Queue: 3 jobs
Job 1
Amino acid sequence: EPEVTQTPSHQVTQMGQEVILRCVPISNHLYFYWYRQILGQKVEFLVSFYNNEISEKSEIFDDQFSVERPDGSNFTLKIRSTKLEDSAMYFCASLLLAGAQETQYFGPGTRLLVL
Amino acid sequence: DAKTTQPTSMDCAEGRAANLPCNHSTISGNEYVYWYRQIHSQGPQYIIHGLKNNETNEMASLIITEDRKSSTLILPHATLRDTAVYYCIVRGLASGGSYIPTFGRGTSLIVHP
């Protein structure tokens, strides 16, 4: 069964450094998402991406964040200058079509630790 | 999306059926009920969804009341690996990829031996 993959599984970085989290969505999917989950808290939406542009973003997704689909397969989340509070699990998800019956599939996540 | 209410936690004996309730009294006619689960530190996993009729797949059954104001996810023979947080999400028609599921706290299901 096709699945969403994410790399790396774990990332440790120093505060102020840039990180890039990578995702390979399911190959024929058209909509892509990033979520985060701070330890012990809810899964929070960050951004959705369709047709090579951001379609929606939450208030969490401020100027330090950016997303890109650099080629036909990867979908990346860049955090420009990490802060301690960016430590979280980051999940990528993809969706085939924007219908109410369409299922969103999530990747296994990247655990980011900012020191 | 309609708001959902779930119990904070439940437990179930291994091999027995786990019945997880969800209230969605403000659901509208074109909104689907989705269930996901999240095993510790993993990504949310799709389980099942439905609109009006009861649904069954290899993982679970979904029973939706006739008025659609509540539903129950049934894991017919729970195993220890079913220990997870279960999320009930109600979603409507999306346009332009703007669908954003809102994850609440869900129900923490513990399956014990």
Note: Chain B touches chain A at residues 30-32, 34, 38, 41-46, 49, 91-105 (CB under 8 Å).
Job 2
Amino acid sequence: DQQVKQNSPSLSVQEGRISILNCDYTNSMFDYFLWYKKYPAEGPTFLISISSIKDKNEDGRFTVFLNKSAKHLSLHIVPSQPGDSAVYFCAGGGTSYGKLTFGQGTILTVHP
Amino acid sequence: DGGITQSPKYLFRKEGQNVTLSCEQNLNHDAMYWYRQDPGQGLRLIYYSQIVNDFQKGDIAEGYSVSREKKESFPLTVTSAQKNPTAFYLCASSIAGGSGNEQFFGPGTRLTVL
């Protein structure tokens, strides 16, 4: 039972354009969501999070949107830069769980 | 300089041997976690601990064991019962295990069983 799904294994974008990474979840008990960025052979680094009481959170070039009725969230990167090329994971968590559930990841490639 | 350290970066073992992966944090975090990453499978939770001397199984605990005798340390033992141990192992910690708490990750250990 995959509670968090990232259905696009990869995404390719031109430098300067918008990157949109998508994530779907099934567990209604999740009350916060996080996005992580990961380079090969390194640990993931935290990017941005959103509480389930919000529908948008912005931090510089990164914006996360949450649609609770559709159980869908997305990460927008504007403008995309070659250094953004990495694997992006979304994760869901709940107050009662004490842990996160991660999606499979999406490989983002930003071409110069 | 606070953070999470995992050692070694690369580890090779023969089939049938137990091996212990180290994870240490000096962030004064209560909660610690072990994940495994395989290609195309994302991060899967092996074990987690919300407080010293207590830990819970994650989604793929079979063939693994942990201990949490000290707040800063959460070693993971990959036993010979683990059918497919070759993977990239990641340790993480957070202030507490509850809502909204970001997890900080170590650099990972690549285990290869020959």
Note: The interface with chain A takes residues 4, 31, 33, 35, 40-45, 48, 50, 56, 58, 88, 90, 92, 96-108, 110 of chain B (CB under 8 Å).
Job 3
Amino acid sequence: AQSVTQLDSQVPVFEEAPVELRCNYSSSVSVYLFWYVQYPNQGLQLLLKYLSGSTLVKGINGFEAEFNKSQTSFHLRKPSVHISDTAEYFCAVSDAGGYNKLIFGAGTRLAVHP
Amino acid sequence: NAGVTQTPKFQVLKTGQSMTLQCAQDMNHEYMSWYRQDPGMGLRLIHYSVGAGITDQGEVPNGYNVSRSTTEDFPLRLLSAAPSQTSVYFCASSYPTGGHYEQFFGPGTRLTVL
């Protein structure tokens, strides 16, 4: 069975500082990997996804993530955060191919302080 | 396009009451899903549908029923609400693109069962 572990439940950071949100997954098959963002009182929005190819994936709002197969990780990074990045971030995994049921991590709450 | 819409936004029920959470999409997507979001647990799949007339169970289906009579609508029914069903419920629709299914989430319904 697949599972996703987000290693930090909360990450406080100052504005303009870099940030990394960590995600590890377990699966016995090829996977697709996703990062979603949830702003307060809103639904989830796709930030970026890894399907195949280059292991460095760029997404919206200046975020990027790197797929590391040997470490089964998919960490999310941003070199300089803004107050508006304050949100909850979810890592998710699905089987590659076919209709892919998403398995979500517990989420990481990013709090950007001035 | 309105995208994925959910009604109501908020609902309070007493234990044992029944209700239906509504979900509709106007993007002609074949696939639709219901998730519940609980603190520290991320999103968990309740039920999903791969087309009109076809539904299947997800990770946490107990206590919930679904049906899919049209492509547009995918209601979630609670026949006898329990306090353990207090949660935020998200509906999502998806379509195939680039070898995977891109999911679009609704704004959510916050349900409290007393």
Note: Chain B has a mean pLDDT of 93.
